[in-house]
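Task card 7
Instruction: Convert sequence to structure tokens.
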Amino acid sequence: MDLREYQLMAAVEDRHFWFLGMRAIFRDAYLDAGLGPASEVLDVGCATGGMMRFLAGQGRFMGLDRSEEAAAIARQRTGCPVLVGDATAMPFPDGRFDGVMAMDVLEHVEDDRAALREIRRVLRPGGPFLASVPCHPWLFSTHDRALMHLRRYRRREFLARLAEAGFRPERVSWTNSLLFPVAAASRLARRFLGDRRDGRSDAGLEVGPANGLLLRVFRLERVLGRRIPMPWGLSLLVVSR
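Output:
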């Protein structure tokens, strides 16, 4: 991503409904996977450190990002060590981490198979890998281009990638589910009618007072998702070992 998007992310991620809602869902999966304060956890593609900041106190975190600007922001905002490096050739020994997380990262990596093999290598045997990825190639939009996404995954495709790298999924969940029809319709409409946001991602959309309402929708999804499988979603969350 370019510096403008990193700066935008850092400015809004502590209050924007999408970041708060998705991270709460991710945190549930993190804790359910058995990770906790004593766990050494790598955040691959940590960007500006929002996930490590959100999970403060729930692990001993280290970040990795290929952007020097993002890594500097993440260090300042979290106090965690953050290295600049490539997800396909990580500077860590085998089995270094108790857990690895990659939230909306793999869609940025050209050789995502190599990145998954590296994640497998640096993860201790039996440790959990938590990943979220955007789905549905037919929804690829200006939002994806602004964030420099190379792809949106199909569910079957991403699970096959994990299996190729030696991972066994134990939880597969759709996320951003309740808002999926509205979000999908909005992105398709912008594709056909034109988008005047000057190449910016959806993080730049000002929702104003609706932010609180949309956050409550995510909270409802969080409750429902722990009880019933959601039928669809913009993204996929997978916990594997």
